[in-house]
TrEMBL record:
GO terms for cellular component: Golgi apparatus; membrane. This is Nucleotide-diphospho-sugar transferase domain-containing protein. It is a single-pass type II membrane protein. Belongs to the MNN1/MNT family. Coiled coil: none annotated. One of its GO terms (biological process) is protein O-linked glycosylation. Pfam families: Mannosyl_trans3 (PF11051). SUPFAM superfamilies: Nucleotide-diphospho-sugar transferases (SSF53448). It is found in: Membrane. InterPro entries: Alpha_mannosyltransferase, Nucleotide-diphossugar_trans. The keyword Heme does not apply. Residues 1-25 form the signal peptide.
Length: 398
């Protein structure tokens, strides 16, 4: 397998070189595209790889605009020593042929899955609803669908400083088959902490969800856990509980009821009750409502966005200059100290994304270098993607 990976990377380099050298002499690009389209070895890689026996891997949900971040995430995972299968999930043909080529050329242990087409074909997803999952709602659906037993769900724009497979060795994972991460504490009346009218009473959305969930459908009785009753959201102190940029689940070691409940939440409940900002709360709540044990650990979360390719060098310089020198320090989850986005707040108006008055600690130099490496990788892949998309347009034109 290492030899195959080396061969693929060599072919990738030769492929890029051939395009760049041929493009100088081309008149309308048609000859270049036709030579590229004959590279059927890409199709053969997809056709002959059999990953059906693999039971552990990493799952990332993607669409065309996220390919630079997703592909650079693959490079970063391999640089950190990770060798697990990586599944790239998308919805209803959301990935272009160019994106398929980039991903398959990049890594030999990579699989692309269109979960929406599979679920529509099997009758588990109405065709009229399929495009509803071209969003962050795709992630719960992907977790239900994947044949992998041990799964690490990652966001394409995650910044990693260690091989995430270490999470499979944590005590909480070994005990419960899950690792969940807390989101920031936000003292706002929205999502879990927003109000709904239920049985002529004004109740928190989280309370409504727990009170109205169809337990009998899953052969369960209402039985909220002691942990739930201690959460900040249950006690009106936070709009959010879970951050879903990293979610670790052992589907083989936990009750299948949790996956059935997750499917129900994403297919039905989220349409009737606005309890979650996207997919983020569905994972822990699926386990809570299914009465299956789950575990949380602390997370330091950092996120960056890449948007412009008008001047790649300038954009890289801008992103590198914005790399933080400090991050919020590690601490125990606790009640928020002040209210965000409130003009009447004596502390002033500040975005809810900020961990205000929570302290800070310096970033390690190697973590700063890792972010810089990721920025450069993502920008290079974005430039390759733009060229590939342009070549696809030439094919349609001719």
């Amino acid at each position: 397998m290492p030899l195959l990976g080396t061969c693929i990377m060599c072919l990738f380099v030769v492929y890029i070189y051939m395009i760049s050298t041929s493009a100088v002499a081309m008149k309308d690009g048609k000859d270049v595209y036709e030579s590229i389209s004959k590279d059927q070895w890409l199709v053969q890689i997809q056709r002959h790889h059999d990953f059906s026996s693999i039971r552990r891997g990493i799952l990332v949900c993607v669409f065309d605009a996220m390919i630079p971040m997703a592909a650079s995430l693959v490079l970063e995972l391999r640089a950190l020593g990770n060798t697990d299968l990586i599944q790239m999930y998308h919805c209803n043909g959301e990935l272009s042929a160019a994106s398929h080529r980039i991903l398959y050329m990049l890594d030999a242990r990579l699989e692309i899955v269109d979960v929406c087409k599979d679920f529509v074909a099997s009758g588990r997803l109405p065709a009229a609803k399929a495009n509803d999952f071209r969003s962050f709602w795709l992630k719960p659906l992907a977790l239900v669908h994947t044949r992998l037993a041990e799964v690490i769900l990652l966001d394409a724009d995650d910044l990693l400083f260690h091989d995430p497979s270490q999470l499979w060795q944590t005590p909480g994972y070994k005990e419960t088959g899950t690792v969940f991460f807390y989101d920031r504490e936000v003292a706002k009346a929205e999502y879990l902490n927003n109000w709904s009218v239920h049985r002529f009473q004004r109740m928190l959305n989280l309370h409504v969800l727990v009170d109205t969930f169809e337990y009998a459908q899953f052969h369960l009785m209402k039985r909220p856990s002691k942990y739930l009753e201690r959460t900040l959201a249950w006690n009106k102190h936070s709009a959010h509980e879970q951050d879903s940029s990293v979610v670790v689940v052992n589907k083989g070691a936990t009750s299948s009821v949790a996956m059935d409940v997750l499917y129900h939440l994403v297919m039905h409940t989220r349409y009737t009750l606005d309890f979650s900002y996207g997919d983020k709360e569905l994972f822990w709540l699926a386990f809570e409502l299914a009465q299956v044990p789950y575990s949380y650990i602390f997370n330091p979360y950092v996120n960056h966005d890449m948007s412009s390719l008008q001047d790649p060098a300038a954009r890289v310089a801008e992103l590198v200059a914005a790399i933080p020198t400090h991050v919020s320090r590690q601490r125990k989850r606790s009640k928020p100290l002040t209210t965000p986005e409130d003009a009447a707040n004596p502390d002033g108006f500040w975005p809810q994304e900020c961990l205000y008055k929570r302290g800070s600690e310096a970033m390690r130099p190697q973590d700063v270098r890792a972010i810089e490496r990721r920025i450069h990788s993502a920008m290079r892949i974005a430039m390759i993607q733009q060229r590939e998309l342009a070549l696809d347009k030439l094919k349609k034109k001719h």
